[in-house]
Write the structure tokens for this entry.
Amino acid sequence: MKNLTLIIQTNAQQELANHLRSIEQISGFTFSHVEGHGVQVETDPFLSVRDKVVGYTPRTRVDILLKDSDVESTLEALRATSSYVEDRVIYWVTAVEQSGRL
């Protein structure tokens, strides 16, 4: 099992949620609100004046548990939706040793 983590612009959350619900391999996902800290590119059209002043950017983190065999097809499905992807999504995949419900 793998965990696919995405970091997206907060304003793309609803569009991404709609798209994730249409991907067969995804049975569920979790959104968490996070703050991006780091070197900000002045030409980034998604940075507001507030973001530039306070030094961080509101982001949304998405965690998706997937079967190992579904990771690449899920990434391809996400790449195919260029309206919110276009270098605005950061992702990583990590191994999940165990999962379940308590």
Q: What stands out?
A: Residues 2-95 form a domain with the Alpha-Beta Plaits fold (CATH 3.30.70.120). The chain has one domain: 2-95.
